[in-house]
Predict the 3D structure of the following.
Amino acid sequence: MTDDTITVAVDQDFKIPLKSIGTAGYIWKIESVPDGIRALGSEIQNPPVATKPGDATTQVFRFRALEAGEHIITFALARPWENKAIETRSLVVKAG
């Protein structure tokens, strides 16, 4: 698990880009998001060149900070049809 920290203002939208292996079926999903943060959606950004199975893609999650404080968002990288994640990642959001 990798821990990162970002700082944002309250009522500010922010993005969290995560490298995924969407071409092999692995995508990130939000495991937990605290009440002080609102998830606004996500999208996969494919590279500008043609991809093949196993190539990396970037999945971008959008959020908004609703309350001041320190909040932890946790993600899991897995195939939707499998029960076990191959990686988890937590990010600390400092909103103020």
